[in-house]
Amino acid sequence: MRTAIDTNVFSAIWSAEKSVVLLLVQLEKARREGALLVSPFVFAELHAYPGATKGFIGEFLSATGVEVDWKLEQRLWAESAERFAHYATRRRRSSGVEPRRLLADFLIGAHALLQADRLLTLDPEIYQRDFPELAMF
């Protein structure tokens, strides 16, 4: 069982948010069940966390057993593009009422869908709308 992890999980842990205890329990459970991984997009977003350095991020990922899944196949890019295009059409039809989403969300979702078995995120509703077949953890 491969669990992809969204950026917001790490941000919540590093910020010691109220959800940190539950997140740590979920991460440990996921680790016992298989591999923990992040896409290169999550890896890049982690560098925007206030005060996070390359060394800190590398040490944290290593200590928690989280691997960066650097291998991105063409089908991941195609899946992201298709889902992002559907979202953009839906948002235009809503006259901008639908929340604005970033392309990175679609790349993270496509990565979890195609290269993992499930996604651990604090925003499951965001991914469920555009990736309804993606299992959430």
Give a summary of the structure in a few sentences.
This protein has helices spanning 7-14, 20-33, 40-46, 54-64, 74-93, 103-115, 124-130; strands spanning 2-5, 35-38, 66-68, 118-120. It has 137 residues and is an alpha/beta fold.
Q: What does the model show?
A:
- This protein has a four-stranded parallel sheet.
- It is an alpha/beta fold and 137 residues long.
- The protein has a single domain, classed as Rossmann fold (3-Layer(aba) Sandwich).
- The termini are close together.
- 58% of the residues lie in helices and 10% in strands.
- It has helices spanning 7-14, 20-33, 40-46, 54-64, 74-93, 103-115, 124-130; strands spanning 2-5, 35-38, 66-68, 118-120.
- It is built from seven helices and four strands; from the N terminus they run E-H-H-E-H-H-E-H-H-E-H.
- Helix 5 crosses helix 6.
Strand content: 5-15%
CATH architecture: 3-Layer(aba) Sandwich
Oligomer: single chain
- What is the H level of CATH, i.e. the homologous superfamily? 5'-nuclease
Distance between the termini: 11 Å
Number of strand elements: 4
Number of helices: 7
Largest sheet: 4 strands, parallel
Number of domains: 1
Radius of gyration: 15 Å
Q: Please name the CATH topology.
A: Rossmann fold
The amount of helix comes to 55-70%
**Overall pLDDT confidence:** 95
Low-confidence runs: none
Order of neighbouring strands in the sheet with most strands = 3-2-1-4
- Helix and strand run: EHHEHHEHHEH
Query: Can you tell me the overall shape?
Result: globular
| SS class | alpha/beta
CATH class: Alpha Beta
